[in-house]
Specification:
Distance between the termini: 44 Å
CATH topology of the largest domain: D-amino Acid Aminotransferase, Chain A, domain 1
Number of helices: 13
Number of domains: 3
CATH architecture of the largest domain: 2-Layer Sandwich
CATH superfamily of the largest domain: ATP-grasp fold, B domain
Largest sheet: 7 strands, antiparallel
Length: 350
């Protein structure tokens, strides 16, 4: 069956997963798909892979949403597909304006997005949900940070510290009493070296304003992610994958696995937060680490392209009766590695 043509505006076309996502959408053969990419950088890879390309301000810039609204008013896509965490909040806040132009916008409501963006708020929102989380304390002063670290087991056990609002492991540190800075300097990767509690708090003793931080129980164990298509807090379709070989905050290797226990935990999270569309729920061991209300680095199959299935759901082309058969296609034999590629072009002066 040939379906009507589909027009998509794809944001963050230079993000790490953009090229693979674009390729997956290009692989769909049941309809013609036109993709217009946008990014803050003029050399984003989507410029070279999509049918059209426009530069816009960064997602955190006040001019971002007006520029995007102007673009979609010209392109008139069927779907606005949002990739970056920095864009989900601003677009969600003005979702009605975008949809008044005749498109579907695949982002959750502002309250749900806000709860995910602030990890301390997310933790608090899920305290009454049957989901295991690391113990977490938000100190207001340096002395409270020290007290919190000792309460969570330091120096006998390591603890973690990070800002509640951050992206790509920025600001994350493990505090451990046996941290060897010389060893980390000579042999560790940048940004991964642990610190002692004394070293860490020395950075903030003389600050005028103490930053907002979380002190968390250190959790060990394998990392897993439930990537889900969600509607009104209900998971419609999902995959569970491992997260392996982390580099610069990004997982570089994945395995699809069967973890119904994590799917059930993710279902509780999505229902409690009333999430919609694409959701990425991360666990370490059996503990919830974070929730991202956006697309993830999907483990794609030729017969299960979750981003495209979400688009079909948004367009009213996928009903509940079809979901079980689609879910049964997920193969736990699927393996993925992320690698670097390059594009080449000649810059022509205007």
């Amino acid at each position: 069956m040939t379906l009507p043509p589909l027009s998509i505006v794809l944001t963050a076309a230079g993000c790490p997963g953009a090229a693979t996502l674009i390729g997956a959408l290009r692989s769909i053969d049941e309809r013609d798909i036109t993709i217009h990419a946008v990014d803050a950088r003029p050399d984003a890879v989507g410029r070279f892979l999509c049918d059209g390309f426009t530069t816009v301000p960064w997602g955190t810039d006040p001019g971002y949403v007006p520029a995007l609204l102007e673009l979609v008013a010209q392109v008139r896509p069927d779907v606005l597909f949002v990739q970056s965490s920095l864009e989900v909040g601003p677009i969600s806040a003005r979702k009605a304006e975008f949809e008044s132009l005749g498109m579907r916008v695949l982002v959750a409501a502002p309250a749900a997005v806000g709860a995910c963006a602030d990890k301390a708020a997310m933790h608090a929102a899920l305290l009454n949900a049957p989901v295991s989380q690391p113990e977490l304390i938000v100190p207001c002063t340096v002395d409270e940070l020290v007290t919190a670290a000792h309460r969570l087991g330091y120096p006998d056990r390591p603890v973690c510290v990070k800002p509640p609002v951050a992206k790509g492991s920025r600001g994350f540190r493990v505090l451990r009493a046996d941290a060897d800075r010389a060893e980390a300097l000579l042999h560790g990767r940048p940004g991964t070296d642990p610190m002692t509690l004394d070293e860490y708090v020395s950075l903030f003793r003389d600050t005028v304003e103490f930053p907002r931080l979380m002190v968390m129980e250190y959790v060990d164990g394998p990392e897993h992610t439930v990537d889900a298509l969600v509607e009104d807090g209900r998971i419609l379709l999902h995959q569970v994958k491992t997260r392996e070989r982390i580099a610069a905050g990004l997982a570089m290797s994945f395995r699809t696995v069967d973890r119904p226990d994590l799917v059930e935990a993710a279902s509780q999270v999505c229902e409690a937060l009333q999430l919609d569309w694409f959701v990425n729920v991360q666990f370490k061991g059996d503990r919830l680490l974070e929730v991202n209300p956006r697309v993830s680095t999907f483990v794609l199959q030729e017969d299960f392209v979750l981003p495209y299935l979400g688009i079909k759901r948004a367009l009213g082309e996928l009903d509940d009766a079809e979901l079980p058969a689609l879910q049964s296609r997920v193969r736990t034999s699927r393996r993925t590695i992320r690698y670097y590629d390059q594009v080449f072009w000649d810059e022509v002066d205007d």
